[in-house]
Design goal:
It is a single chain. By secondary structure, the chain is mainly β. It has a single domain, classed as Acetoacetate decarboxylase-like, CATH 2.40.400.10. The strands form 3 sheets. A 7-stranded mixed barrel has the order 3-6-7-8-12-13-15. The longest helix is centred in the middle third of the chain and has 11 residues.
Length: about 260
């Protein structure tokens, strides 16, 4: 991965967009005003590995036998494709190179560049769903994603057809300016691995390693709940991130060889 050259005070400057007439969307997509919270938990490497569709995808382990999975709730208030909400369940991975427990994670943290394979990506917008699935192979489906304050914490409820999948809750921490970060997002389209680059500019950002900073409640009666309950998730998050205001760039998916 190359270092992000973006300037945090002129985040969208110098980025050329072109118009995709089939989907009537500008690419890359600009996300001007957004909120997110992410909680990263450990999971059984042995149980998560079969969910990765390609041999070159290796779970990033915190220590032997325990890899990392990120639960992220997004409220996109102003974007090139309109406002919508999204929830990501993603495995933190290393593509093409085996993970060294602890070391690979520290390397990604030091460079502020992360790699992830998206397991599930429900959204509230049909435009976002259709374009993401057909152009990028994202595992998107329409769901209900609702934010609210509960007991002094920001909560996001994820459900589909009245079946509650999960609830992610996190503290509204004291905020400051965060560093520009880059993510390599891997997906699958026609059984071919693709990669998209995402750059984030956290205008307001905070991070906590405290166990009580966030909670995850998994529902029942939905396929995703059943899968999550097999992963032997840790009881507390290892990292929690809260960003009530940030900007983002989502670049189109490409073949791995073209990255």
């Amino acid at each position: 991965m190359k270092t992000c050259f973006l300037h945090p005070d002129r985040f969208f400057d110098g980025i050329y967009q072109w118009h995709n007439t089939e989907y009537d969307v500008k690419l890359p997509i600009f996300y001007y005003d957004n909120l997110s919270m992410t909680a990263i938990f450990t999971a059984s490497t042995k149980k998560l590995k079969p969910l990765l569709p390609f041999e070159d995808m290796h779970p990033v382990e915190m220590f032997p036998g325990r890899c990392l999975i990120a639960f992220s709730a997004f409220e996109y208030r102003k974007t090139d494709i309109g406002p919508y909400n999204e929830f990501s369940i993603a495995a933190i991975i290393s593509y093409g190179k085996r993970s060294i427990p602890g070391i690979t994670l520290l390397s990604q943290l030091a460079r502020n560049m992360f790699e992830a394979y998206i397991l599930y990506l429900p959204v509230t917008s049909e435009l976002a769903r259709k374009g993401g699935v057909e152009m990028g192979g994202y595992p998107k489906f329409i769901a209900e994603i609702d934010f609210q304050m509960k007991n002094g914490m920001l909560s996001c409820d994820l459900s589909e057809k009245s079946k509650r999948i999960l609830t992610l809750s996190g503290k509204k921490l004291a905020i400051s300016k965060g560093p520009v970060a880059r993510f390599g997002i891997y997906t699958r389209l026609n059984n071919i691995p693709l990669k998209s680059n995402v750059c984030l500019n956290p205008i307001q950002f905070s991070q906590s390693y405290k166990k009580d900073s966030a909670t995850l409640e998994i529902g029942s009666g939905h396929e995703i709940c059943d899968v999550l309950k097999t992963l032997d998730l840790g009881s507390n998050p290892k990292v929690y991130q809260y960003s009530p205001k940030y900007e983002a760039l989502l670049f189109p998916a490409k073949n791995i060889i073209d990255i």
